[in-house]
Amino acid sequence: MGASKINEDVVKAAKSQKSQFVKKTTSKSVLLGAAFLMATSAIGPGFLTQTTVFTQQLAASFAFVILISLLLDIVAQLNVWRIIAVSGLRGQEIANKVLPGLGVVLAVMIVIGGLAFNIGNVAGAGLGLNAMLGLDPIVGAVISALFAIFIFVIKEAGKAMDKVAQAAGGVMILLMMFVAIKTSPPVGDAIVNTFAPEQISWFAIVTLVGGTVGGYITFAGGHRLLDAGIKGVEYLPEVTKSSVMGIVVTGIMRIALFLAVLGVVTQGLAIDPANPPASVFQLAAGDIGFRMFGVIMWAAAITSVVGAAYTSVSFIRSFHPSIEKYHNWIIIAFIVVSTITFVFVGKPVNVLLLVGALNALILPVALGTLLVAAYKKEIVGSYKHPLWLTITGVLVVIIMSIMSVITLIQQLPQLFA
Hints:
Elements: H1 2-42, H2 45-58, H3 62-87, H4 91-98, H5 102-133, H6 137-153, H7 157-182, H8 187-195, H9 202-213, H10 217-227, H11 236-266, H12 276-314, H13 321-325, H14 327-344, H15 349-373, H16 377-380, H17 387-415
Main location: membrane
GO molecular function, one term: manganese ion transmembrane transporter activity
Membrane topology: Multi-pass membrane protein
């Protein structure tokens, strides 16, 4: 009897240890997946073009822009991810608790912005397969959309999304670093200009921040963690690491592309204005470089398609039980609508301009709302938000608010020209 009891205890202990190991391993996988989902959502076709164009304009001084934008990105993500994790609520649910109806407004902004930009992401995926394999861009876009849809059809969609984001992110980083080394950039000049720039472009800084943590991207990782059940104060250290990791991955990509372009610029080679990033890769490594650009463009675009669809739909999941029940199918519909619009209409320039201006407003509205929520006990309980995060978060809200208004003023006349 005694021996039997001991054996039962041993078996129970072994099962408990195994359960804790599986739970810990799963948590690490999800945290890594959330970081890469955020990062790869930010690294889309626009990311590649913006980095190339600003490097052409600012040369080595763009290193300072990258540094400042990364610091602002980290502040924004640390605030957003922590408050989402502590409250256990999605962004729109938190906003509705701060001010009834605000969550609906935020959700509408996110969904409209995500849908419009997803048209560009689908187009980018088509162009990526065109450069990689020579496929017609429309055929490439349809194939890419089917690949993205497949991710959400399979049973473990969340895990599949994490794996795709990690694999695509790894491939992009390796290829980008190869091209950066190939162009032999003046690394010394870049390091000096990181801290003592010859020129400063605040517009470039704001554009980079908006493109990295603006719109739906702000919430991509935080919402993924909630869906995986990672929430509560006990997870804050891991959530913090994951949010910073996402920005670091984005930063590595940005730096590698910046160095690649800088190497081409300092050699006096002419970059094609029609497709700046593709031109850089071709100048750096010939036809192989152009094919590599296709791989990077496709990986950047397809992960942005997945991230935009997943995060945008996550903003309406709490509005009705049917949406929650069938959210994967709604994500698929989101991708289908984006693809059909690109195939039959093309890129609606005016809509993209309007949404670009709208997207610039989302970060200050979202971050400002969550900072208010961090001091409401009915939302975060006894949690005390770090003062330094609040102060730096408010600064980001002020800077982005001012610059987003300037962006609106600049872009609205173009819409009605």
